[in-house]
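Appendix B, record 7
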Amino acid sequence: MNYLSEKAKINIEWNKRVWGDRDKWLDREYGYNWSRESERPQNYSDAKKIVETHLFPLIKKEEMDILELCPGAGRVTVELVSRARNLILVDMNPVCIEICKDRFKYYDHISYHVNDGVSLDMIEPESLDLIFSYDSFVHIDKEIVEQYVSQFRNKLRDGGIAWIHHSAVGERKIGSRSNMTAQLMKDFAQKHGLLVIAQFYSYLIRKPTMHYADVFTVLEKLSEETAKFSSLSADQLE
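Structure tokens (predicted):
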């Protein structure tokens, strides 16, 4: 991680400290109590609503090879596991991976990895149909988000997509939301050979507030030729 700025390294350490507490995850019902009261697991969770309404309609395959980035305690993993041929969970917090291993111990098509908060080196090239992350990238610094996005194209198969829930507050200091924006994600996608096929604010699902200015961005892998053309600047195209 020597190539990261000090600001980005501090962000990684903050996320390790905040989300690396096993008791906090258990006290928060594996993260489900971040849903509204009417959307708890016994009724209809926000995670279930999101994947059924805003992910699965975009999927072209019945079974997929899926990477879930930063799964936390598996709040959305429970919705993805039945649609996965192979499901890979990657989180920088060993506690999160340990909790998920325990929750999903009866599934034999899930693999688990602890990373450094940036790297996807454990994933084989062109081995994924879907990269997914919900309620985690909202806390990740824009520099680290780009590092992840820069690896997506190499890991996805042709036609594969990345579905990422991220902050859109910019440089303003709002709660624990990071300095990402919707436009930045578009810029990262163009730079790294991905096409933005959908982008929408989370108030389509939750009531908008200043503290939750989040965006869902869906990226698709471009062909080699299209990606090369897309990455050219306006001056180069003249």
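Remarks on this record: Residues 90 and 113 are 5 Å apart (CA to CA). Residues 6-237 form a domain with the Rossmann fold fold (CATH 3.40.50.150).
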